[in-house]
Amino acid sequence: MKAMSCHAGRHLQDPASASDFKALGVSVGLVVLNTLVDACCRAGDMKRAAALLQDMVHAKFDLQPDLISYSTLIKGYCVQGDLDDALELFGAMRRKGIKPDAIVFNSLLDGCARKEMPMLCEQVIEDMVAAGVQPSNYSASILIKLYGRISDLDAAFKVLDEMPQKFGFRPNTAVYTTLMSSCTWNGRMDLAMGLRERMLQDGQTADEKTFLTLLRGATRFGQCEHISTLLWEVAEQSMRQRKPLVETEVVQNALHTLMKRRAWNQQGGEECLQHLRCAGFNVVRPQVATPAKGNSQRRLVSRKC
Predict the structure, then answer these.
(1) Residue 71 near residue 104 (C-beta atoms within 8 A)
(2) Residue ranges per domain, the chain?
(3) Which H or E element spans position 71?
(4) pLDDT tens digit string along 117-136?
(5) Which of 77, 134, 243, 255 lies in disulfide reach of 86, CB 3.0 to 4.6 Å?
(6) How far is CA 65 from the centre of its chain?
């Protein structure tokens, strides 16, 4: 069978429906239909995705939708911001006796978080537990991101402090990094760096996203001591992995901030620069502004190492 997508059969007025497949003389199974629903959702064509599901519900394909069918469409609705449609479909799925799994609940949780509805998020967690599905690191990350977005850092930290212990999972690097991002978003670089220490003590290793989050935050707020600490760690970890850990542009911007804030010498900028180069980063010494002789204006002078 030829590969099909949401836009397959362009000669048909309304492709990817039961009548279209019958007109083509093609017999399809549930896996193919679920793939088509997913393709339509990814393309943002929720109308066609919903039509495919309805064709299955009304037995036009001689088969019934399963958990994956409903889960895919629910996630599509949530991504598109159609929370009401997602919740309505969730109810229809349960009325058919299909038991939701973690993917469905986390999709709904993410949909509620996108709408910045913390009370509804808490209700989803309660329903999740009542259905015998345990919240996970992914669930915690969604909640933390929500609370960071609405500037409720106390609630965000409460998720980290209580949810893992309550539901029996260990917070991973992604959870810590999400909370760090929430802290930097709300101007609390001090809390973000404190989380870095807590994460390391908890046996979790900083990854690329962790360093990007912290470096961008420290650069944004001009916190040179943090910049220096992070750059050295980035260089060390890059050497161990034998490849640059983060984007060179982020590292170069951080170095520029050290120079701009007149902290280059104090924070060991020259040594840090050489260490980064040894780690594989193609970075240059930032330009410094110096007064030109006989001219009141300032010009940038590039100094090579």
Answers:
(1) yes
(2) 222-305
(3) helix 67-79
(4) 999 999 999 999 999 999 99
(5) 77
(6) 29
